[in-house]
Amino acid sequence: MSTAERYDHIGTDYASVRRPDSRWVARIHQALDGHRTLVNVGAGAGSYEPNFISVVGVEPSQIMIRQRSSSAAPVVCGVAEQLPFLDGAFDVALAVLTVHHWSDPGAGLAEMRRVSRKQVVVTWDPDVFARQFWLVRDYLPEAAERETQLATLATVVAHLGPATTEMLPVPDDCTDGFFGAYWKRPYAYLDATVRGAISGLALLDRGVVAAALARLRFDLGYGRWHARYAELMDLCEIDLGYRLVVAEQ
Ligand SMILES: C[S@@+](CC[C@H](N)C(=O)[O-])C[C@H]1O[C@@H](n2cnc3c(N)ncnc32)[C@H](O)[C@@H]1O
User: Fold this and answer.
1) Is the distance from the beta carbon of residue 67 to the nearest atom of ligand 1 less than 6 Å?
2) CATH number, domain at 211?
3) Could you give the CA distance from residue 241 to residue 167 in angstroms, rounded to a whole number?
């Protein structure tokens, strides 16, 4: 099963749980400012698409396409590895938390370079993620193992050429429910709907996830989680390894 087909199964509640976060919107839109045309690759339900640029989305999953709002930009059903556009057709190509799903990330990133002069990619550094995120480090190291096989920051930078990389901190009330979003709201990970929109959990072995969640539930119930991670309560944002990569030819 391709990841796009998997999204037809795991993406059902995506738009309700993965609402674009305003702080990330501001950072991403800053990188898009001054440009006129944009292709959003792996566009999903349309998160982070600006309304000040002419946008076309590319998305393989019909379930995701159906969750785009009626006012969202037009979308083409397709994959990153074969973008149906002429060379240099866009000022910018955007890809937010999608490259790790592509069957051939190198080909998809080359396609982004072919069709645009500037590429803006949100991905993450799995070393920072595994070290800084308590859920992975202390409860679910299997998730970190899986991530070593995914195309993340190093792959993106290697294929985009000279690029700037900026840290994207995760706010404590982040509205986009990606894997690290609930770092200060641990009960959220006990919610099956929340987990269903996080591929890093939804695609892991169910028994492994269930065992980790049983330990988390126990620690929360006995006050051990709050005792162990008390210092997190003083933070309003955290670096979990999420990165904004910007490359310009
Ligand atoms: C985590 S979602 C991100 C969606 C959107 N960019 C966002 O920020 O909400 C990952 C998306 O990548 C899409 N995807 C999977 N394989 C793909 C491929 N080969 N090319 C383009 N998109 C793909 C999935 O269908 C899914 O919509």
Assistant:
1) no
2) 3.40.50.150
3) 7
The full DSSP string for 79-139 is -GGG--S-TT-EEEEEEES-GGG-SSHHHHHHHHHHHEEEEEEEEE-HHHHHHH-HIIIII
pLDDT higher than threshold 70 for residue 195? yes
Task: Provide the residue range defining the domain that includes 184.
Answer: 3-248
pLDDT at 148: 87
The Cβ-side half-sphere exposure at 108, using a 13 Å CA radius, reads 24
Q: Is the CB of 44 under 6 A from ligand 1?
A: yes
- 117 C-alpha to center of ligand 1: Å? 21
pTM: 0.95
How many domains, in total, are found in the chain? 1
Task: Report the SS3 class of residue 212.
Answer: helix
Which residue stretches of the chain are H helix? 3-10, 14-17, 22-32, 62-66, 105-115, 126-132, 134, 141-147, 153-160, 192-196, 199-202, 206-221, 224-228
Q: Which amino acid is at 82?
A: Q
